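Entry type: protein chain
Record version: 2
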Amino acid sequence: MSANIIGLSLLLLGLILLLAKVVRINAGWAQRLFLPSSIIGGFAALALGPEVLGTIASSLGSDRFAEAGIFTPEILQVWKSLPGLLISIVFATLFLGESLPTPKRAARLVGPQLSVGVVLASGQYVVGLLLALLVLGPLFGTNPMAGALIEMGLEGGHGTAAGMRGVMEELGFPEGADLALAMATVGVVGGIVFGVALINWGVRTGRTKCLDGALEQSLDEQRGLFRGDEQYPAAMMTTRPASIEPLALHFGFASVAVLFGVLLLKGLQWIEQLLWADVVEILAYVPLFPVAMLGGVVVQLLLDKTGNGGIIDQGMMLRIQGLALDLLIISALATLSLTAIAANWQPFIILAVAGVAWNVFVFLVLVPRIIRKYWFERGIGDFGQSMGVTATGLILMKIADPENESPALEAFGYKQLIFEPFFGGGLITAAAIPIIAEFGLIPLLIFMSVVLVCFLILGIFYYGRHPEVDVAGDPQPSVAN
């Protein structure tokens, strides 16, 4: 494939993203759903591709758009390859530029927040694995690996679902990635719809502490724009452009993090081949992106130890991460297989409904019993993250606590440092599919059930009954909005 085709494919993604933003600015339905432009653009590209336009053209007897819609097969091939590459950039930048809190404050804030996050994620596994074992397998003959789709799609989001495509194809579950991507889309839309509904309910019933009136947003907020008088810096330059462009410097550190991840993964796979690959093989199927995240942690630790931690700006890393994620979502949705979803629509609906129901149940019933102070503001962020992506959780926290009066954002950020390496695209998410393929559903179901019960007990009977260990009511340092 020529470099010109690759370049044109990337330029088309930029054009689609720009047109999608125009739709977001002018379409009231998109504003009310808080739909990201990448989701709008992804569905537009899907509609203009072979799965929709191509199918319609074929049914009408025309071969003009049947093969690839308005695009070309080469462009679609580039787009299909991009998610697996971009997801490593997204995860490598997660902890670059992060500053560590004081151990005492972090430990006291993280406890209840981590309990909620792990209960949500491990419960998604338990619900999905039970459904695969008792319903989907016996009734529909569904692949057992479908039991991991709720956590992969809802907690992991589009990036994780797309990043796991190669693993699922290699292990004999090629339709899994398309189902996971569809699940992630349900989660992103459902996260906003249910999240905003829950916030309105919380305001009406007096459960929110930071909102005491009707939930309202300005026209600019609905359209996703800033007013001319608003000051919202995108990032901070940590080096002079005359020596190196700051964005290029940060991309360089992200690249080093990914390369660290490559070396680490290759080393672990070499050890597995050397010691136990003839008995069981798991690491051979673990994708790069969760290990790239560990590479980012290594890079940040090395910079901190050498006194150079300040050279990385978290805001700049967030911009790189956001660009990679937007392009990833569009390219993943554009190459989504509707045929695979249609062939498995019944198991998909069962899993999606069960996953959303579990998340709502945890937020309404369990979160108030685990987090005693500012439970609504702190729980809504984890609810949003468990429905799609971290950005959804951040959006809902911003709506529920617009002036950052609660410690929700701070606690959520600290929790990510422990939570992300394992769930929502971390090591457990990456290993779940190979474990099911190698050992079946039962071992993973038992392990996740134990994790769920342990964190439920810890959350309800320790943090829930001893709210004094939580510093949610203490004065907190200022956190950027």
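Comment: The chain has a mean pLDDT of 84.
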